[in-house]
């Protein structure tokens, strides 16, 4: 009997050591980024409740969110008071657009620890995504619990900017910048507040700070260009508008304004060039509705449908060169083969050699050929 007892103890210890070894091996695989192997190892552990959250985390790392949600759900059921597991589960639910379910889990978390500001903030994001006006209350709660919470401060300051309550917005922005002076989102709100207050001197300073922090967007450059023009600094205004064209070469408004600014500088040749280009781009026929539809579809990455809409535009008006060009540029996004893309642009350029779009086509051909060359070198 005693021998049997000893044997059972030895087997129990041996099994425990084996399971510990499996867990250590799986943890090591996870730490080293071998996530799929880690998942396989975790699944051999006898106590799946113990490793469900680990399997979920590894699935998140490889982008398998459905599996991750399944295992987080198991982990949460096995240990319903584990705040870390519930928090990761709630965030993933929100990330995968399961907002209602995410809000439920965040409510559970708040019952565990109401004073955790991130629970309130993340729940606010989920509420915001479903259009629930109480989202702002969650951001307020996050701020009340942590007055250095940059993301909560941003949401509150943005709310007051939208409401055009600029002084209140400034107050929260300044509070946030005290603890993080290079916060890009708050710096952007600061610039926008001054812009809408028509305090262009301060707006210029803060938009320029955004650029100094490495930011570059059509919005920033367009606003800074307008401000420079307010101060009659037309060369600076032109430089910023050209950066707008760099990101959006078909922006007729930017072309027209550059032409106007050149006119102010008495550079009439350049003014004529840009104003003519703007007029060409703005001269659209009645079939423009299909062209707009194509643009809207493209912005949703529905390129196949966009091509169909643009083809209808051309059918309505075979002389609509802009729609023909947009078909080519959409196929550029839709097709994978570089050679096919080059051929599309070459055919367009040869068909319409003396148009502004042929220049855009030529520029794109050069870029695609460079891309092809670099891939060949690899």
Automatic annotation (TrEMBL):
Keyword Signal appears in the UniProt entry: yes
Source domain of life: Bacteria
PROSITE patterns with a match to the protein in the record: TPR
Residues spanning the signal sequence: 1-18
One Pfam entry name: TPR_8
Annotated TPR repeat ranges: 252-285, 287-320
Keywords, in A-Z order: Signal, TPR repeat
Keyword flag Signal: yes
The protein's name in its UniProt record: Tetratricopeptide repeat protein
Species classification: Bacteria, Pseudomonadati, Bacteroidota, Flavobacteriia, Flavobacteriales
């Amino acid at each position: 009997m005693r021998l049997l007892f000893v044997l059972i103890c030895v087997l129990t210890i041996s099994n425990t050591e084996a399971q510990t070894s499996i867990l250590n091996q799986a943890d090591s695989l996870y730490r080293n980024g071998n996530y799929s192997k880690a998942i396989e190892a975790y699944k051999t552990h006898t106590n799946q409740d113990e490793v469900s959250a680990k399997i979920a985390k590894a699935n998140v790392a490889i982008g398998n969110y459905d599996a991750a949600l399944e295992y987080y759900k198991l982990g949460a059921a096995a240990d319903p008071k584990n705040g870390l597991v519930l928090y990761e589960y709630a965030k993933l639910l929100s990330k995968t657009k399961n907002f209602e379910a995410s809000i439920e889990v965040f409510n559970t978390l708040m019952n565990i620890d109401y004073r955790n500001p991130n629970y309130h903030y993340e729940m606010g994001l989920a509420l915001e995504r479903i259009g629930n006006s109480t989202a702002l209350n969650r951001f307020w709660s996050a701020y009340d619990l942590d007055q250095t919470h940059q993301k909560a401060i941003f949401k509150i300051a943005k709310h007051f900017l939208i409401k055009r309550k600029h002084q209140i917005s400034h107050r929260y922005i300044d509070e946030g910048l005290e603890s993080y002076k290079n916060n890009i989102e708050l710096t952007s709100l600061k610039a926008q507040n001054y812009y809408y207050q028509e305090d262009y001197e301060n707006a210029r300073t803060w938009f320029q700070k955004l650029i100094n922090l490495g930011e570059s967007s059509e919005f920033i450059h367009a606003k800074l260009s307008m401000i420079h023009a307010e101060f009659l600094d037309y060369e600076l205004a032109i430089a910023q508008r050209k950066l707008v064209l760099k990101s959006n070469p078909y922006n007729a408004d930017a072309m027209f304004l550059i032409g106007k600014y050149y006119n102010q500088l008495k550079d009439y040749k350049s003014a004529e060039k840009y104003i003519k280009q703007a007029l060409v781009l703005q001269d659209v026929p009645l079939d423009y509705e299909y062209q707009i539809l194509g643009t809207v579809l493209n912005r949703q990455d529905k390129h196949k449908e966009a091509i169909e809409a643009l083809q209808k535009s051309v059918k309505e008006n075979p002389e609509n060169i802009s729609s023909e060009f947009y078909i080519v540029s959409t196929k550029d996004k839709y097709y994978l083969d570089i050679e096919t893309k080059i051929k599309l642009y070459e055919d367009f350029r040869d068909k319409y050699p003396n148009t502004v779009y042929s220049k855009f086509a030529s520029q794109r051909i050069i870029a695609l050929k460079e891309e092809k060359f670099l891939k060949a070198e690899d």
